[in-house]
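Hey team,

Filing this mostly as a record. A colleague (T.K.) asked me to run one chain through the structure pipeline before their review meeting, and I want the input and output archived in the tracker in case anyone asks later how it was produced. No errors, nothing strange. Just documentation.

Input sequence:
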Amino acid sequence: MVQLSGPGNSTASQISSRHQRLLIHVGLQTAVAIALHKIPEGLIIFLSRQASPKLGISVAASLFFHNLPEGLMLALPLFLATRQRHMAFLVASLMGAVPPALGAALGMLVIGRDERRGGQETRLSGIFGFTFGITAGMMCMVALNGMLPTARIYDRSGNVVAWCFALGVAAMLFANTTLH
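Output structure:
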């Protein structure tokens, strides 16, 4: 568990300052991981739109709802650290909008050109494997080293965090088994 106060006597302002730095660190770490996670989302929207306009709209809509909790995950630590709603909202909005646009642009540049030449499947497999592997590793490290320890600060017993973590894993297992 992350401790806010170290050995010796710490004043409330020192603890508050350390807590604020921790929240900013977690918020920025989450922002970077989510931004990198959203680049493949933009690529997926581009590819699904290439396959079918109807599929592209469906994928974009589902990712929109998927991104709502991510925005909250990103904005909440920044808001708690700075108490500036507009700044937290602006950072979350920029991190939510810009990376998918970059992913779609990347898809247009790399895959769109490859599609005209034919034989894009091998190239796509490499791009997806590389991008998703790195993204998954980054998101796991942010969750394990930043988000869970920070959540434990607000839940000293750890019961709420543990149950919600288990509920999140169970929800994903259920979704993966019923949708495949």
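Quick notes for T.K.: Confidence is low (pLDDT under 50) at residues 1-12. The radius of gyration is 19 Å.
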